[in-house]
Amino acid sequence: MDRLTVPAGYEALEAGTVEAYLDGRPDLRSRLPAGPLTVREVGDGNLNLVFIVRSAATPDDPGIVLKQSLPWVRVFGEGWPLTVERAVREAHAYEAFSPVAAEALPAYLGFDEPRYVLALEDLGDLRVWRGALNDGEIHAGAAAVVGTFAARIAFWTSDFGLQPEERKARLVASSNPELCRITEDLVLTEPYLEHEHNWHHPALDPLVAEVRADAELRREVGVLKHVFRTHAEALIHGDLHTGSVMVGGGRTVVIDPEFAFYGPVAYDLGALWANAVIAEARATRLGRPDAFRAHLAAIIRASWDAFAMELERLWPERADTFLEDGFREAWLRIVWHDAVGFAGTKMIRRTIGFAHVTDIETLDEPDRSTAAASVLRIGRRLILERADITGPTALWSLAQDELAAPAGAPR
Amino acid sequence: MDRLTVPAGYEALEAGTVEAYLDGRPDLRSRLPAGPLTVREVGDGNLNLVFIVRSAATPDDPGIVLKQSLPWVRVFGEGWPLTVERAVREAHAYEAFSPVAAEALPAYLGFDEPRYVLALEDLGDLRVWRGALNDGEIHAGAAAVVGTFAARIAFWTSDFGLQPEERKARLVASSNPELCRITEDLVLTEPYLEHEHNWHHPALDPLVAEVRADAELRREVGVLKHVFRTHAEALIHGDLHTGSVMVGGGRTVVIDPEFAFYGPVAYDLGALWANAVIAEARATRLGRPDAFRAHLAAIIRASWDAFAMELERLWPERADTFLEDGFREAWLRIVWHDAVGFAGTKMIRRTIGFAHVTDIETLDEPDRSTAAASVLRIGRRLILERADITGPTALWSLAQDELAAPAGAPR
């Protein structure tokens, strides 16, 4: 990651230049009422500018969203260059996913390749699921929508839904080495080493030292890293945590597929499940009501059941009828166990790696350290014990054991 | 496979036109003495023309080999079109393998892309290993060379030996959908169905019916097919049976990498091991001497040990030092069990699929049917029991049990 690639013609948008930009994009401008516009930059991720553009006369009505990639990792500044090509990857993913999972995506309004500007539906009052969970909001159908989404993209971009020649052609067209490298480094390597990107709360020092000295854990993370790199099953989302999901108004919408590449289907499910457990660690510290805790417990079961059911529903449409129901069930078991392992890696990277989460970081001490330590312990166990964790109940029960654990690490 | 793609400028060589062709290829012509040439067409495979070109004055001295792909599957005639592009895949594989495993390959003398003609070292007195095994010849070092070769190409074309961006770029450049489709169909699908490509000896009818009704077997073959399609670990040979190896004069040389693609490393080892067992089925029927039978038993152990040892030797040169010895050992276990399963599929396709092998087909009845039935039973068990087969000794012992089995299928 030592190249700073800014293609000719690239220019970052600013709130003040968006209106002029849209004057040159009549296809987008025509979606908004005539007259003055309001532009708000709302990007809270690490990699991009995000502008919400609405009519100044009706600022509460949804307009459009423009998302532009910056040539560096935003939170790190210009010291971490990253190609703007990732916007091409995101546009490519929306183009692949929209025909098969439109109900779980924002409307895709096109891509301006010279400027690396993606245009999307303005999701209006929807909010990021992570924030809703942080506030204790229940969005009952969200997990099933995400599970169904994961199944639909898994089926329709893999050898299940495509002829093998077509899948191979799409795989070639979907290579995303730079963003894969971020995952390989930040999620699947650095948290297990001393590395300048990492940080954690001092109270976790003894537990972190133990995790980084655990040779068995490192071996199993290596196995999962190898799976991530080499199991080119389907065009996966690649970053399907609760910050990549918007909820509200009866809708659940998946966003930000810029990490999409041909990888293991289990990775998307693992990302979601890690964040359900992280939300539960917060809810435990805050003493949230039982109804909310039950909602969190249901995220893993509902997403998994929806995933498996959608696969079963689509199965008669498979391209390869040699693969029967028995294969699908065997494959689901493999996906389950890999997803449990990936969930573990996602928990650990959020507690001792580079990018942490508001679920934990907005807690007051000592709850913050206690929650982080619990998540770290759960993640470690999910990785090491993934072959023996048989289903959502066992996973949740393991998490509850650690959330209630009195000894060892800080509580 | 319904397209017949013959690019502009393609013209099949004939023995009588090779000399004129070489007049236009001074780079190759200069490797041969001046004066008249002799040309022999020796292609015994299914897909290609192969010409040995030597000086007429010294016809026992090695010259050069020209290999040209035909636009159809040769044994099937023009009714099975197949792109000549596979010669591009073979040239690409030689170019990738030669820098890291030259000792186990013919010298690669270049590729004439418009004519789809590959030029290679003439291997002189070396013979195809399958034929040598059929004749009861012992080539003691061959298995270790092939195992070492498999390790070297696995290491240097995977994330072990390459930076991940480089591996991904090579994966994109190595897509080989047509030849993968042949394996997916002929090896990993059709033998388990009623299909016009299949044939077997009538004495096997009851056993074949049982195999094709075995839902558990079909499920597990589906799992292996999915691994074959999606585990893009390394640029593998893709067809590493004993007909793709030449032996003699103290050398062991791997040829015919036209099936090369980014796939599971285990597949190459499985192909070799299947053919060791097939050779043993023949040797059993013919009552070959113990020394020869011990040689066959050693093929699996020697290739596996050489594979594992070469990986260990190369490990300090790995690109990703996060992967430690513990990972390598865990990965080797996965490769072992997958290879046992793939070996099973290769045995079954050779007994009840489209392309059979001389090891069995040149036996007289009832030995021919008895050997085929044994190989079929062993293949089935390797697929179903692969997770419980712990090493070469267990594999060979299972094979011996079936080769000695008195009941059920024909003996």
Structural write-up:
Two copies of one chain form a homodimer. Chain A is an alpha+beta fold and 411 residues long. A five-stranded antiparallel beta sheet of chain A has the order 1-2-3-5-4, with helices on one face. In chain A, a hairpin with a 4-residue loop joins strand 4 and strand 5. The two termini of chain A are 38 Å apart. In chain A, 53% of the residues are buried. Chains A and B meet through helix 6, helix 7, helix 9 and helix 12 of A and helix 6, helix 7, helix 9 and helix 12 of B.
**Order of strands side by side in the largest beta sheet of chain A?**
1-2-3-5-4
Average pLDDT rating of chain A: 93
- What pair of chains forms the biggest interface? A-B, 42 and 42 residues
Give the % helix of chain A: 40-55%
Number of DSSP helices of chain A?
Answer: 15
User: What portion of residues of chain A belong to β-strands?
Assistant: 5-15%
Distance between the termini of chain A: 38 Å
Q: How many individual β-strands of chain A?
A: 10
Radius of gyration of chain A in whole Å, from Cα? Answer: 21 Å
Helix-strand pattern of chain A, N to C? HHEEEHEEEHHHHHHEEEEHHHHHH
How would you describe the oligomerization state of the chains in this entry? homodimer
